[in-house]
Design a protein that fits this description.
The structure is a single chain. This protein has 2 helices and 21 strands. With 274 residues, it is α/β, with parallel strands linked by helices. It is elongated, with a radius of gyration of 22 Å.
């Protein structure tokens, strides 16, 4: 009888530890822990304690709404169970050692506003399924080993303010449909292997503050319509195959500075902010 009572007590304690989230989300957290060598994390989880005490996990109304584990020595692949967090709003796994492909199951996270997987070693193509995350405001995939083209489906992310894809191995052109991302403030594809002409449609992104296109294989001329980007304060287009070189600008400055032609050289001009 005492043994039975002890078993019941242990069961209730275990159940209470996970009582604040669904079994589906609990399983996803444990799958994440196991697949990324949780015991070796800089700040690890005690799986015997309540989930709401686990580092980097934010819970509201018995739902996981944020996963923030940057700089935490996550290693290995992201599990497919990552798609179980149906109310997740923010996911930040930047500055870790994650490998493999970016899971297409991330497309299940329909409430996601920020997806940050930068500074890892993800390979393969950017999943086209990410184009269904229509609430996404920030997509940061820079400094990985991603290949292939920018998926056309990403042009459906009309709430995006940040699209940072630099320092990968992306090829192909910037989609002409980039104009659809009318709220975009930061666009970076620098340090890739992209080619073709720089689309004039970028000039329709009137909220743009940062435009980083340097270190690719872009050809042709820089569209003069970029003069319409009056909010632009950081501009980099050097180290391409354009018909002429342009000054890289960082700081508060008049747009006309971008169009100064250089003679066989690239300069960087820092202009002090007021």
């Amino acid at each position: 009888m005492k043994t039975f009572k002890l078993i019941v007590i242990c069961f209730l304690v275990s159940a209470y530890s996970f009582a604040n989230i669904s079994s589906s989300e609990r399983d996803a957290l444990i799958a994440l822990y196991n697949s990324t060598e949780g015991s070796k994390w800089n700040t690890t989880w005690d799986l015997n304690t309540s989930v709401d005490s686990w580092y980097g996990v934010t819970i509201e109304n018995n739902k996981v709404v944020e996963l923030n584990l940057p700089f935490n020595n996550l290693q290995g692949n992201l599990p497919k169970e990552i798609g179980n967090f149906e109310t997740l709003r923010k996911l930040n796994f930047g500055f870790n050692k994650l490998v493999g492909k970016i899971p297409a199951e991330l497309a299940n996270l329909k409430e996601l506003t920020s997806l940050e997987l930068f500074m890892n070693s993800f390979e393969g193509e950017i999943p086209s399924e990410l184009g269904s995350l229509t609430k996404l405001e920030s997509l940061k995939l820079y400094s990985n080993k991603l290949t292939g083209n920018i998926p056309m489906e990403l042009m459906s992310l009309t709430n995006l303010k940040e699209l940072l894809l630099g320092s990968n191995f992306l090829t192909g052109t910037i989609p002409n449909q980039i104009y659809a991302l009318s709220k975009l403030e930061k666009l970076s594809v620098m340090d890739n292997k992209m080619d073709g002409e720089i689309p004039v449609e970028i000039a329709q992104l009137t909220q743009l503050k940062e435009l980083l296109l340097s270190s690719n294989k872009f050809t042709g001329d820089l569209p003069m319509e970029f003069m319409n980007l009056t909010k632009l304060n950081t501009f980099m287009v050097s180290d391409n195959n354009l018909n002429q070189e342009y000054i890289s600008v960082s700081g508060k400055n008049p747009p006309s500075i971008m169009f100064l032609e250089l003679q066989n050289a690239t300069a960087t001009m820092d202009i002090e902010k007021d």
